[in-house]
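ARCHIVE CARD
CATEGORY: sequence design from structure
SOURCE FIELD: tokenized fold
FIELD CONTENT:
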């Protein structure tokens, strides 16, 4: 089965709150089964612009990540703070 890549682009109102909660999610996610790469990036030249770039061993691993408690906690904490565009890619 092919690896799965995710590009989650975030536009953030309160960066401090976002970064604090994102770090909790990153720490937990990087120990998950199937997590190859999970890194937060700041968009160059754009205030409040961030992206989480992810690589997962399988689609199933990504689905399990999406259902995890730490992802749900992050989403709940950022509901009014973040807008997101999430794209998923597989090799051609």
């Amino acid at each position: 089965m092919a690896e799965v890549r995710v590009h989650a682009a975030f536009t953030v109102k309160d960066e401090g709150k976002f970064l604090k909660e994102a770090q909790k999610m990153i720490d937990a996610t990087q120990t998950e089964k199937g997590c190859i790469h999970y890194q937060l990036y700041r968009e160059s030249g754009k205030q409040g612009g961030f992206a989480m770039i992810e690589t997962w061993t399988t689609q199933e691993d990504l689905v399990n990540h999406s259902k995890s408690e730490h992802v749900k906690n992050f989403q709940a904490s950022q509901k009014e703070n973040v807008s997101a565009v999430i794209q998923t890619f597989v090799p051609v």
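CARD ANNOTATION: Residues 15-29 form the longest helix (15 residues). The chain has a mean pLDDT of 97.
SHELF: design records, drawer C
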